[in-house]
Amino acid sequence: MKVSQIISVTPAFNFAGNKKHNNVINKVFGELKADVFTPGENHKNEILSKNILSQCKKFNISDYKKLTDIEKEALTKTSNFKIIKAAESNYELGLVLKKYLDKIYGEDKYVFVSIGTSPAGLARVLEFSGTQTKYLPISKIRKPDSMKLSEYKNGDMKLKNYGDFLKKQKITKEDINNSEKKYLFVDYESSGNSLKNFQKLLDVNYDIKENDKIKFLSLNTIMQMMCTSESFSPFKQERLLKDMDSYMFHYLQCHYIEDFAGIPHCSIKKLENISSLQNTENDNAKRYNYLIMHFLEEDGLLKNNPLNSNTL
Predict the structure, then answer these.
(1) CB 292 within 8 A of CB 125
(2) What is the pLDDT of residues 295-310, one digit of tens each?
(3) CA–CA distance from 43 to each of 49, 56, 71, 189, 201 (Å)?
(4) For residues 44 and 78, is the Cβ–Cβ distance under 8 A?
(5) Where are the alpha helices (DSSP H) in 106-218?
(6) What is the C-alpha separation between 148 and 269, in angstroms, rounded?
(7) Cα separation of 170 and 176, whole Å?
(8) N or C: which end of the chain has fewer CB within 10 A?
(9) What is the pTM of this model?
(10) Cα(61)–Cα(129) distance, integer angstroms
């Protein structure tokens, strides 16, 4: 029902004598005075938020830095509880992940490559705090029979288009060899096959093989190791492990991460469609990005890395 329709029917409920109820109605929808409708605070925030989000395909740091305090307040107030909770959970673990990877590989010495959708929620924290980050959409590669490499021959449109996509993302054998950084290809494993199959896809078709500069890592293993790091007290380790278990269940095993990660599914059987899936975030993903940046800014950790300018 439109706002105008709601306003038109409110007299039938005889709210005129209910000051408390009228205050709520006015705050949410607005009020009618002298035949002039004045939008309420919540309604104004919704309109402002939708206008902000409609102006970008992906909400990035340059978009964030253009916001006024009023616009930030509107985006915050109109974000629903689930997105806020998701941003908080990913933010807390994402900072721990960045600290752990910085310690192991060196700050600004690695590229975090998020495979598929699952690691993307945490990867946004790394991206917006300055880590060079890349996203490679691909899905349905867990089952052993999903990788019949004999079907993917040279010249196959699926492989060609995905290869072109890798070139645009600067993930080729030459790009990696010319870089001084290590490339960490990270995926969440629910079966143990997805990461292995993806590694095989890159190896056989694009000559990207694991070596000293290229690592294929399980997100599960990384998170287990980072939560039990000796830099944390036993009490902190226990709390982090509980947080990790809860995170994996709610966001990875239940696939809730898909609602706000902004990285679409791209079935291995439809790799030819990869070009049409770039930079098409929905409003939930844009709000999620905003919240992660807002948290980082409040903690003095927001950092724009120019190397992320073409990141999905």
Answers:
(1) yes
(2) 999 999 999 999 999 8
(3) 10, 21, 13, 42, 49
(4) no
(5) 120-128, 157-168, 173-178, 194-206
(6) 10
(7) 8
(8) N
(9) 0.84
(10) 10
